[in-house]
Amino acid sequence: MSDFEAQLRAVSLRVTRPRLAVLAALRDNPHVDTETVIALVRAELPTVSHQAVYDVLRALTESGLIRRIQPAGALARYETRVGDNHHHVVCRSCGAIADVDCAVGHAPCLTAGSDHGFVIDEAEVVYWGVCPECAAEPVQ
Ligand SMILES: [Zn+2]
Ligand SMILES: [Zn+2]
After folding, report:
1. In CATH, what number is assigned to the domain containing residue 120?
2. Model's pTM, two decimal places?
3. CA of 134, nearest ligand number
4. Ligand 2 centre and the CA of 140: distance in Å?
5. Which residues constitute the domain of residue 11?
6. Centroid of ligand 2 to alpha carbon of 88 (angstroms)
7. Is 116's pLDDT higher than 90?
8. Domain containing residue 41: CATH number
9. Which of 99, 104, 106, 125 has the fewest Cβ atoms surrounding its Cβ within 10 A?
10. How far is the CA of 74 from the centre of ligand 1 (A)?
């Protein structure tokens, strides 16, 4: 049994080829958008419909096996790295995304100035900037 099969069973999801294909695609290609996931899955399973991939992404996100991230103004992206409250740095120019580990090591890694009585267990941070490739491009 593969790791992905065990993960699906652990959250009571049936093991299906589209679900396994989506998990493998995201493991190998973190932070890709829905259209890219569809293209990657169809390279393996040509008959899978767009709707089937949407459904798989939603089920996997709801079960916590994948994480959906959506930087402001950008398309939703997905990744299999979950549960560690890591953050992302996004290139303003080309949209490239990279992981940024939690600043202090454990979630939540940011201490709110005031918690207003809430029990805080997660901090959501997006760092914005310019990636090395865009920064190296000659100014037009
Ligand atoms: Zn860039
Ligand atoms: Zn990430």
Report:
1. 3.30.1490.190
2. 0.82
3. 1
4. 31
5. 3-69
6. 6
7. no
8. 1.10.10.10
9. 106
10. 13
